[in-house]
Amino acid sequence: MARTLGAVSGTAGETKARKLDGTDPLHRSSQLDYLRWGNEGGIVDSPNGPTGDRDEINSHPDLRALGRRLRLEMDETLRAEQYAARVSAQRRSTIRDRLLLAEDRAEDLIVDVSGGAVTHGVVLAVGADHVVVASRGTQSWIALQHIVALRRPAA
Amino acid sequence: MRPTLVTIISPRPWEARLADAAVETGLVRLVGRCSEPGEVPMADAITVGTETPWLSGATIGGWRDRGFVVIGVFPATDQPALELLCLSSVDQLFTEGADPLVILRAIRDLTEVPRLSLSRRASRSG
Description:
heterodimer, A: alpha+beta, two-stranded antiparallel ribbon, 7 strands, about 40% helix, disordered N terminus, B: alpha/beta, five-stranded parallel sheet, 5 strands
């Protein structure tokens, strides 16, 4: 049986109850935010929203402590989710993604190519299968499949 | 000149979609996807979702004072999230379902508008 935490006004003005048991993943973080932005003693009412159970949570000392604990736990969950998102983005990234980032940052890079050639310069453009590196007035078109390493020059 | 953008990395799909669209379209230069406030490099604009655990009005105000155009993204049904962003005076609001291209065009347009940071305005008036 899902417990509900108060009532929150929806976009169309309708009243919606939110589950606290995590069975509603779409709204889970919203619940976290809802708790996080409450004051130290509990949960703050929206000036527009209906109050309902939230008044009870604000006024009852036992529920204040519960609200604080839930807020902390939810913050930890959000941090873990954000960390997972970062790791996931890193694990999915490719050499081409890194080159695109270098292009957008106008970064200086050292590109090691198979066969031992080294190109040092600024990434001008990244194509589907190649990268253009400008170095000392010359531009090099390098096939992505030949890149073996990217390095940042020492500061 | 294409504006530079930083996104605060998020487990919600809107942020990955926005980053992909930025790279594919080239409407903006994506210079960072950050997860901590201390990692944020200087840029023209920043997008942040209300699911970010450390997000606060002070953080948003700090970015605005540094000259960022701040774009807030929130779940459509989340009234407290909307209130936080409104009270923090973000430059533009979008719901999570917004088309990434619409967000990118808004960033491009907003960064072309000359703006003064709150601190600079305060120092001039004081």
